[in-house]
Amino acid sequence: MTSLLTPQIEELLREPEYRVEGPQKVTGRAHYSADLQLPGTLWAKFVLSPFAHARILNVDKPAALKVPGVHTILTGQDIGLHRFGRFLYDWPVLAYDQVLYIGERVAAVAAETREAAEEAVRLIDVEYEELPAVLDAEEALREGAPILHPDSDGYFYVAGNRPPRPHPNLQGYLEAHKGEGDIERVFAGAYRVFEDVYIGPRQHQGYIEPHACVAWQERDGTMRVRSTNKAPFSLRQQLSIASGVDESTIVVDSSFIGGDFGGKGHSIDEFPCFFLARATGRPIKSVMSYADELTTTSPRHPARIYLRTAVDREGRLLAHQQRAYFNGGAYGGAKPMPGPNIAAAFAPFEAYNVPHTDLKTYTVYTNTTPSGHMRAPGSTIADLAGEGHIDNIARELGIDPIEFRIMNVTRAGDTSTTGHPVHHSRAAELLETLRRETKWDETKLPPNHGRGVVIRHHGIGQGKTNIQLKLLADGKVEALYGTPDQGSGSATVVRRVAAAILSVEPERIVVRYGNTDEAPWDAGAGSSRVTHIVGQATIGAATSLKQQLEDLAAEVMGWPAGQVTLEAGRFAVKGGESASFDEVAARIVRGSDVTASGAFDSAVGREERPDGVCHYGYVIEVNVDPATGAVKVVEATLAVDPGTVINPIAYQGQLDGGFVYGFGNGIMEEMDVEDGKITTASLGEYKLPTQMDIPPLRTIMLTPEDGPGPFGAKSIGETNNSAVAAAIANAVHDAVGARVKELPVTAERVFRALAEKAASGTPNR
């Protein structure tokens, strides 16, 4: 462990702690964006395109403008062509001359009441000329497909020069190669070659709070936006670039966010509301309905992954080839990654040592709802594909699935599928732990019961942030930071880390989220980075503040300089007298304003910090009814490779929540699409798991090893959710011999797989 993790700090971190913002949330005192009602607020509603691809010929507004209470109606022609995005600015604030998906915003209405705005929307008559639409990612790359963004080379790209793409319908393209330049020579000389195709659906992030925003202009010209967006500094930048308004005159506040799971990093309605507020001089409020949420926001990318793998006679992996197609929808603006691409594009074989690889990933424009990020973007389908493919190979070769994985997982000194060095790996140790703890080799299961195993890893997120600590007049220490706590518990992390470094009780730390005008700059929540970067910034600020307080304590108490320490809430002279924190702080604040700043950038000195990879694995048991295909998950065992745990309750909560999230992704969640239209328009149709659905989960933690986070922490927020689906699919195959290669693993898909197996003459297990 790092030297900062003293026995005293370790003991403090073992004590569980309630969430900082918990009392506000459970008593209803937490105010969310939808709760804000300013005097003179107007409601915004939007005309949505009924076509997947069409040219806008005319927007007729007179009848709508006569509706009592309507103040203004804006179209793309009224405001001009303004685009927004997180990395790639390809998404119009309002459709300008064409629409590229069903649900695209064509006109924006501002009215005194929600009902008046909705009535005006119904009366706006839009004349379209329907154009050929392309809905499938692979179809969009074929010759003759309509080119959806012919001017895309001119779009603003945050990083400067946009990476080259081999086709104009690509939002992003990635490729990686390792080993033999002519990989076909390796395949030609292999003992066996295996091929598979796996399919992932659109899925919604499932947060409770719908997107909401309020935008208004102050008398001094400052534009303010209250938003559910979890990256307020990024949103401020986007609003500035999209509108041409100077960033220094925009303030974004995202103080309470009701759930995220990847879906709150992207905003849509904030942009037209910004323009409406400037046009009317009144506050503009927008709150999406769940139907809006499910049909027009940014769901998980549908995907199709082709895999081809060569092995030798002993079952060792020789070569792996992968083609992954992610349906990016009509715009790529929802993605915060360079490219823009999918973080887990090359992840199917991430845990395995393969000498020769050839990997290509395509993120494609289509005339469908723009895809965005969902918890561990791309990982659920990548895990299903990789672990299903590995399982198929092991069973075809007659090798036990755990033994096959142990033989092929990465070890220190290996390289990843993309050629990056592996410095440390606990994959084999974790598999051995699962084998022992689940009695894998000893247990005989009843008929139609099966167990699936998976082994994966997830890295710790990167980024940069800032935080300020200040000694207050009452002896408390204020921590001011700009990372929204979207449910992950970042405020509690700040309090615990600051208290540990300062050696004071956590209650002394007052954590305050600040808007973009108050707080220092922050990258935003997400990407499993918050505990890492905010925690490290807090360590820096708290260490600086502690040194200042010790020096000032010597000065105000008349003690020898350089001989004072702050430990266990007391200032003390080495080997001499002491005084309470309150007594000394009261004297200090009378004479000076004591503040300290902390900044952290994970790109600086990254090579000097320990690996951030957290390995984890599941063994999941299912019972399958062969007559119907119905799957019941009986129990699950999760083994995880932790770093230092900052808050035990929060850590286990993330493990439990990640499993529940992955369970829903794996067995029930799917957005149906007909001719480009999402038809799963309510939470009655889009099934989310409840407590009654969830099987018992047993968690096993390996002995903690040092990670790059504060005190040696590793990531956990996105770590364990994505592999649940793969473990369930592998267990179904073990139970009845039916391999489901498309998510979710529903009874219908299992039944079809059983029928195909019977038709092929394959005997039942």
Would you give an account of this structure?
This protein is of the alpha+beta class and 765 residues long. It folds into three domains: 7-30 and 463-602, Aldehyde Oxidoreductase, domain 4; 33-377, Aldehyde oxidase/xanthine dehydrogenase, a/b hammerhead (Aldehyde Oxidoreductase, domain 3, Alpha-Beta Complex); 379-404 and 426-458 and 612-759, Aldehyde Oxidoreductase, domain 4 (2-Layer Sandwich), CATH 3.30.365.10. It is built from 19 helices and 32 strands. It has a seven-stranded mixed beta sheet, sandwiched between helices. A five-stranded mixed beta sheet has the order 11-19-18-17-12. A four-stranded mixed beta sheet has the order 20-28-29-32, with helices on both faces. Helix 11 (379-397) runs parallel beside helix 18 (724-736) and helix 15 (530-557) packs across helix 16. The chain is globular and about 90 Å long. It starts with 6 loop residues before the first helix and ends in a 6-residue tail after the last helix. The mean pLDDT is 95.
